[in-house]
Amino acid sequence: MRGWVKLSKRQLTKYLILAPVIFILTTLVLIPVRLAIASYQAPQPQAIFMLGGTTLGEREEFTAEFAHWYPSLEIWISSGIPSHKIRKIFKDAGILDSRLHLDYRAVDTVTNFTTLIPDFRQRKIQHLYLITSDFHMPRAKAIATLVLGSQGITFTPLSVASDQSKESTMHITRDVARSILWIFTGYTGASLRPAI
């Protein structure tokens, strides 16, 4: 037949391998573009997003204090200390309970982000204040860049001071890989490892 190119088995295999690789790379390259567009469309954060994880409540206390400066922003908290303790911290700080969105579906840092994506998208949030401890921020920023960025949501990080040492490169690399897995499959891999 005219117009058809006959491919050898080797050429076909090459194209079948190359096509997904190009797709993955293109998708990952578009993340900075989506972050730039989100920053342009929403130059100021539209909500506060705090990652739970400590048992002492330092992040919650910092977030409650910070929320005073931005009374129109809703506050999203993913996992962490029990809800009655969180509500007391915010009530004592004079923050209305109606501003709080507490979510306990996350089992680790990657799922802190992935479980709330539908909520952020439903409310058309394109820019978040991201609050977590300073030792945890490098990993949180890496995950946020991929997970939030892939959804066209940018973030402004705010670190809570702590006396803990920074997390290992291994933890960051593992969660970057899990974030990429989530982008392409919707699966976080959380069930394959203990929660961290």
UniProtKB/TrEMBL annotation:
A Pfam family the protein falls into: DUF218
All copies of domain DUF218, residue ranges: 46-160
A GO cellular component annotation in the UniProt record: plasma membrane
Superkingdom: Bacteria
Record-linked InterPro entries: Cell_Envelope_Assoc, DUF218
Transmembrane segments: 12-37
Keyword hit for Ligase: no
Coiled coil: none
Key words, A-Z: Membrane, Transmembrane, Transmembrane helix
Keyword Calcium: no
Protein name (Swiss-Prot/TrEMBL): YdcF family protein
Native species: Halotia branconii CENA392
